[in-house]
Amino acid sequence: MLRRLHAGTFNLQDIARRAGVSPITVSRVINKPEMVSEATRSRVLGVIQEMGFVLNRLASSFSRASSRIVGTVAPPIINSGIAEQVQGMSDVFSRSDYQLLVSPGDLSAENEERQIMNILGWQPAGFILQAFPESDAMRETLKLRQLPVVEISELVGKEPIDCLVGVSNYEAARRMTLFLAELGYERISFMGAHSHGNDRAMRRTLGYRAAMAELARQAVAVVGPLHPSYAAGGLRKILEIAPNTEVVFCASDTFAIATIQECRRRGLRVPEDLAVAGFGDLDLAPLIVPAITTVRVDRYRMGRIAAETLLRRIAGDASLERIQDVGFSIVRRESA
Amino acid sequence: MLRRLHAGTFNLQDIARRAGVSPITVSRVINKPEMVSEATRSRVLGVIQEMGFVLNRLASSFSRASSRIVGTVAPPIINSGIAEQVQGMSDVFSRSDYQLLVSPGDLSAENEERQIMNILGWQPAGFILQAFPESDAMRETLKLRQLPVVEISELVGKEPIDCLVGVSNYEAARRMTLFLAELGYERISFMGAHSHGNDRAMRRTLGYRAAMAELARQAVAVVGPLHPSYAAGGLRKILEIAPNTEVVFCASDTFAIATIQECRRRGLRVPEDLAVAGFGDLDLAPLIVPAITTVRVDRYRMGRIAAETLLRRIAGDASLERIQDVGFSIVRRESA
DNA sequence: CTGAAAGCGCTTACAG
DNA sequence: CTGAAAGCGCTTACAG
């Protein structure tokens, strides 16, 4: 009973036979070429080329002590920056021997745990955690498996499971607030997202509050669901509480864009009548009019760094710092 | 020499022993529960629960005639709609037993071919092709393997490899042009992307031209690289050729947004002095001011349909239509 | 530098 | 409805 997964394709044995060597030698030509003599290597490579042989990565990963799969869960918040992050990882892994397995998360902890178990079934060599909310059960599961894990998250939070790559949303929001003060704005209000299970949102709000305390000014913060449709109501609330607000610092560019639109509706010029600042530096932040002044966190780079860190972690690199701060920058444009 | 991939985890045998059945029975409880008696099934499920057993999907897929992996290549054009498309697929597959393997493509055919070979190494049960340009060699490779393939692409193009899910960019651009004419615009100009290796761009330009011919009007079309920075130059060129242009139909929302910004710079009110229409319905299309009138192609739904089609194709569904048109709609907002 | 043997954890095909 | 045997295509560990 000969079963070939895909008829018409060859396996290691076929190549070995054709090249007059043992299957192990072919395996070594692919995986550890330096262990094979020049002559043998080039002969085997010739046969591989000639027969269009593609290594069965399924069998390869299966038979290894550690598979060549790396997992992550990406919540379906398109435009949230997760896409860039995944792209960064993906670019790193595609130059390595590892395949990134992306499972779709959603914002419920139960589903996310299911997704993780699902990926765990693929016996990954490592895991990148970029979704939230993270359930504690999940964190425990990952810890228990002793799997190399890199978390991408708010820097100042719980103890990392393993390695952490992050940015301080607190510091970023604090610095933006101080920056707005330096620009001469006196009355700085804040539009944030519910911190309910959302570390970053909470830290941004706290950063704003901290800066206002440093400045000895009255903080005016409203928070709502992280959706552009909240901006109209949020702005109304801000202007009720603090009618003389000079600038609204929005905890996301999406809020900022929607706020600018709402200003237009109300006949307020931005930034002359009311300035607006954002957070995140979306692709469109420089394109809309007025271009948005915002906090830039390089998500693509975060993804890359997370992937590189995981690779080093899997390789057992001892010189690895457990916590890495990738930083942020403030981009001044026209809206504030 | 006992090697366990992950210490502390159990395998089918462990469960079988504990439940007092054979490994095959455990396998059946998981894969074909209807073949197992109620009593045995619940006993085995109990043990699985109790021991926190996770099936080794690597071994499972490896030993099957057909793996539970499905591959796709996604080019890194964030915001191009590919993200929504992948999300749609992902949502379908996550409810199935299949794992979606996403490999990053780029816009070079050589690299894309490498990515596809890479995925083929994972012995996928099927493939979704959503990237372009597609090299002919690649198409041949896929055809040769007789792998179930679903292409997402321009509807009117080359003969599909296997199944095709698409939209007619030609028809969409044609209809938008006619729609603008119905709104009363006389002089309709077009800003498109280079059609160099880009089917959709070419079909959109052709659709515009066809509509203008039907209307017996002079077509004014400029094309440039698909990047917002082209809009300023593109608009200048349009206004040189046709200074009395009343509306610019942009072949992408990104162009439309950048064009609106350029209009502001020039002191042109949109839509009063110059109207602008887009294509694609980006998330931000309704949010910017003025909100963009555009062509909506539901990319998320396209992804879902592609995934469902592939699943049916893998299952050998004979009633499957080879070509599916998912259609488009025109969304009237403020910019035109 | 190269190879023969064993095994990874499942599923398939056959049998009862 | 249940099981014993064989095998999927590789890699590992040992030997020479």
Task: Summarize it.
Helices cover 43% and strands 16% of the residues of chain A.
Structure description:
Two copies of one chain form a homodimer. By secondary structure, chain A is of the alpha/beta class. The first copy, chain A, has helices at 12-19, 23-31, 38-51, 57-63, 82-94, 109-120, 136-145, 169-182, 199-214, 230-241, 253-265, 299-314, and strands at 69-74, 99-104, 126-129, 149-154, 163-167, 188-193, 220-224, 247-250, 275-277, 294-296, 323-325, 329-331. The first copy, chain A, folds into three domains: 12-55, lambda repressor-like DNA-binding domains (434 Repressor (Amino-terminal Domain)); 69-167 and 300-327, Rossmann fold; 169-296, Response regulator (Rossmann fold), CATH 3.40.50.2300. Chain A has twelve helices and twelve strands. In chain A, the strands form three sheets. Chain A has a six-stranded parallel sheet, with helices on both faces. In chain A, strands 7-6-8-9 form a four-stranded parallel sheet, sandwiched between helices. In chain A, strands 10-12 form a two-stranded antiparallel ribbon. At the A-B interface, α4, α5, β2, α6 and α11 of A face α4, α5, β2, α6 and α11 of B.
